[in-house]
Amino acid sequence: MIRLIDVCKCFDRKEALRHINLTIKDGETLAIIGGSGSGKSTLLRLLVGLIRPTSGEIWIGDTEISRLSEKELDQVRLHMGMVFQYSALFDSMTVGDNVAFGLREHTSLDEADIRQIVEDKLRLVGLEKVTDRMPNELSGGMKKRVSLARAIAFEPEIIFYDEPSSGLDPIMTEKIDELIIQMQETLKVTSVVVTHDMASACRIADRIAMIYDGELIAVDTAEHFRESKDARIQAFFHTLRTVKGEEPA
Ligand SMILES: Nc1ncnc2c1ncn2[C@@H]1O[C@H](COP(=O)(O)OP(=O)(O)OP(=O)(O)O)[C@@H](O)[C@H]1O
């Protein structure tokens, strides 16, 4: 379980997040949505311990991470997989070496076991034939899938996705969404997905958390979001209907 208790984050005088209280259950997929500058990335960076809260507590399982040392945080991060917005692959390494990187750095597994894991994870994301290719030979969607294979190499309990569909066409976006659902179903992971794409959020998430101007204004199912009378939430659904070519409400 992930728990944020009264979390605030200030940058100089700017209050990026105010009094966030949120519980994410084991095995749940939570989408965090919100407009540009609302605080989504700040929340994700707090959850993975890249930045520390100004006040409040962040619990990952039984560990309160906000006051841990970097070394202690590294131990917690071994249970987390991260899929970054721009894939963040090493351009000078093959796909296989990218997926193997963390295993080589943080485990004493022998090369045969590592190769087996790399093959298994690439197969899981539907990319079994690209192990020896270089990242710059792959499409954006393929890079995202490699990034996901790398994130699951450690069999994490939690996967964090930062805008997984940014820069992808609608068909590839749906494929990545399907993979996120598949990861939850097959690996039973907890998933936290930051997105500004309401259609994606509705497809993948058990619950959606909406951040508006640094505040968490709603955490609920897509169905309840759809029925919400809150103008800030409806504005997001308005864009969804417009994109789909439906008549705005
Ligand atoms: N390191 C920083 N220093 C100063 N201000 C920051 C820093 N990081 C974020 N902010 C500010 O905090 C607010 C929230 O930013 P954040 O990046 O979390 O928004 P976001 O919802 O992820 O936006 P986007 O969708 O555009 O990425 C913004 O006003 C931003 O300018």
Automatic annotation (TrEMBL):
Q: Which residues form a coiled coil?
A: none
A Pfam family matched in the record: ABC_tran
Q: Which InterPro entries match?
A: AAA+_ATPase, ABC_transporter-like_ATP-bd, ABC_transporter-like_CS, P-loop_NTPase
Give the UniProt keywords, A-Z: ATP-binding, Nucleotide-binding, Transport
Give one GO molecular function term.
Answer: ATP binding
| All residue ranges annotated as the ABC transporter domain in the record | 2-238
Name under which the protein is recorded: ABC transporter ATP-binding protein
Specify the species: Selenomonas montiformis
